[in-house]
């Protein structure tokens, strides 16, 4: 991930939070191994320490997979405790059934793991309750002044109203600039002062950390000398496109201009990586997934057949034409989740609570089981594990006309899951397609092996909590 992306996330509070959780996990493990040593059998200190590090790393990986490190997680205390418990159950399965089977010399005992998990559950739940109750993130929030109060600036006001959207910053105000169009920003949010002559003074008096350039008309409107002086004094000056990208994990399509696309960092990627290493990794993952999920696929196929397949003779699979890499069409393979006459009146978007979906289909769509046959598309090279979801040609032709830069999502191979699925899990309209495009373009700009792995881990949360459709 780029330097710009890291900037908004690597706050002091984030570091304190992670350090606190790592420390508590190490304490839970060491205390459990101490009790195991005292009441069962002795374990060397080196063995205890190695297990503590392994336990902490494994728990944090599992926590990531269930969304506990999602900065915009909106859960009450009960929801947090539920996710913590699921995290530790996953961790126990990972360690007992995989890690300790591969490296039996590391195993202290089942009693140790049970004790460490119970202690970790109590410590993590209490720590998170304390951390969020006292809103410790405020100690490192940037103080932001937005230069602009028109249509462009109003995007920040609309998109970042909730406190969860502003974990890393506080907006001190929006400064009206000549040429701004009236966009209805509330008057109490406006910062009125002589920005052409007093900008630097205002920044100093109000301890501003960051200036966001968001005016509707820039030419000869900005006080360049003041901005330069602010920049040389350590004040961050950033364009609204980069600010939104940094804070929301999406690219504001409606604000993009051609020169930004051409000169922006991060849109290029070594071709050999995507064509060689990327394909090999996808094939290995697909084979492993097939080896693990074939019982689920077999049961799903049987359920579809028993529900309506044996009556109608319809296939348990569904093949549909989609647009792939470089705009080339291919047939996607899924478990059939709708009635056989679902499109007798032509192609249309699937909707929430769609009456065309069968009973079995409703369940497998919710937990994304219907997507499993697409592993065959991965093996054939038409898809990867991570990338923008492929869309139907009937919709692509219209969306490309209505949405700027829509076809840019075809510059990478489509995927089983993607950044848009993590950030915007349901979409069934052209407006939803535009919202997802913002996340798809962010992924295309920042794609890397590490980002792909993070998306794959986080996809567990979508499947586990039924966020598919």
Automatic annotation (TrEMBL):
Domain Bacterial sugar transferase: 281-464
GO molecular function: undecaprenyl-phosphate glucose phosphotransferase activity
Keywords: Membrane, Transferase, Transmembrane, Transmembrane helix
Keyword Metal-binding: no
Subcellular location: Membrane
Bilayer topology annotation: Multi-pass membrane protein
One of the protein's GO biological processes: colanic acid biosynthetic process
Keyword Membrane among record annotations: yes
InterPro entries documented for this protein: Bact_transf (IPR003362), EPS_sugar_tfrase (IPR017475), Sugar_tfrase_EpsB_2 (IPR017464)
Transmembrane segments annotated in the record for this chain: 16-36, 48-69, 81-103, 109-131, 283-307
Primary residence: membrane
This protein's GO CC annotations: membrane
Stated family: Belongs to the bacterial sugar transferase family.
PANTHER family cross-referenced by the UniProt entry: COLANIC BIOSYNTHESIS UDP-GLUCOSE LIPID CARRIER TRANSFERASE (PTHR30576), UDP-GLUCOSE:UNDECAPRENYL-PHOSPHATE GLUCOSE-1-PHOSPHATE TRANSFERASE (PTHR30576:SF21)
Protein name in the entry: Sugar transferase domain-containing protein
Organism (species): Rheinheimera nanhaiensis E407-8
């Amino acid at each position: 991930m780029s330097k710009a992306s890291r900037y908004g996330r690597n706050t002091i509070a984030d570091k304190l939070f992670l350090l606190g959780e790592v420390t508590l996990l190490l304490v839970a493990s060491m205390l459990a191994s101490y009790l195991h040593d005292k009441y069962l059998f002795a374990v060397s200190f080196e063995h205890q320490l190695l297990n503590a590090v392994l336990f902490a790393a494994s728990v944090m990986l599992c926590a990531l997979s269930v969304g506990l490190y999602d900065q915009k997680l909106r859960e009450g205390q009960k929801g947090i405790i539920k996710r913590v418990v699921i995290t530790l159950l996953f961790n126990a399965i990972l360690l007992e059934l995989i890690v300790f089977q591969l490296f039996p010399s590391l195993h202290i005992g089942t009693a140790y793991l049970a004790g460490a998990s119970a202690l970790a559950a109590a410590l993590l739940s209490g720590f998170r309750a304390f951390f969020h109750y006292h809103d410790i993130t405020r100690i490192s929030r940037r103080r932001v002044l937005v230069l602009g109060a028109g249509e462009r600036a109003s995007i920040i006001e609309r998109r970042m109203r909730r406190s969860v959207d502003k974990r890393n910053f506080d907006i001190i105000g929006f400064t009206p600039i000549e040429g701004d169009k009236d966009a209805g920003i509330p008057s109490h949010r406006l910062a009125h002062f002589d920005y052409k002559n007093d900008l630097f003074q205002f920044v100093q008096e109000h301890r501003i950390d960051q200036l966001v350039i968001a005016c509707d008309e820039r030419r000869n409107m900005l006080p360049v000398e003041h901005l330069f002086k602010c920049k040389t004094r350590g004040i961050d000056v950033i364009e609204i496109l980069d600010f939104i990208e940094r804070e929301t994990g999406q690219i504001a399509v409606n604000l993009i201009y051609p020169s930004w696309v051409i000169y922006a960092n991060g849109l290029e990627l070594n071709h050999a990586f995507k064509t060689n290493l990327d394909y090999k990794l996808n094939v290995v993952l697909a084979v492993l997934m097939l080896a693990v999920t074939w019982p689920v696929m077999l049961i799903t196929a049987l359920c579809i057949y028993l529900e309506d397949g044996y009556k109608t003779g319809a296939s348990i699979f569904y093949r549909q034409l989609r647009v792939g890499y470089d705009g080339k069409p291919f047939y996607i393979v899924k478990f059939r989740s709708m009635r056989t006459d679902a499109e007798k009146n032509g192609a249309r978007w699937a909707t929430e609570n769609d009456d065309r979906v069968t009973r079995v289909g409703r369940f497998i769509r919710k937990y994304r089981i219907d997507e499993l046959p697409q592993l065959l598309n991965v093996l054939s090279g038409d898809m990867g594990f991570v990338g923008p979801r492929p869309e139907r040609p009937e919709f692509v032709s219209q969306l490309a006309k209505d949405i700027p830069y829509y076809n840019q999502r075809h510059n990478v191979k489509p995927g089983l899951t993607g950044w848009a699925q993590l950030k915007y899990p349901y979409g069934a309209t052209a407006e939803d397609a535009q919202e997802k495009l913002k996340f798809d373009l962010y992924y295309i700009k920042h794609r890397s092996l590490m980002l792909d792995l993070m998306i794959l881990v986080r996809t567990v949360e979508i499947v586990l909590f039924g966020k598919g459709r």
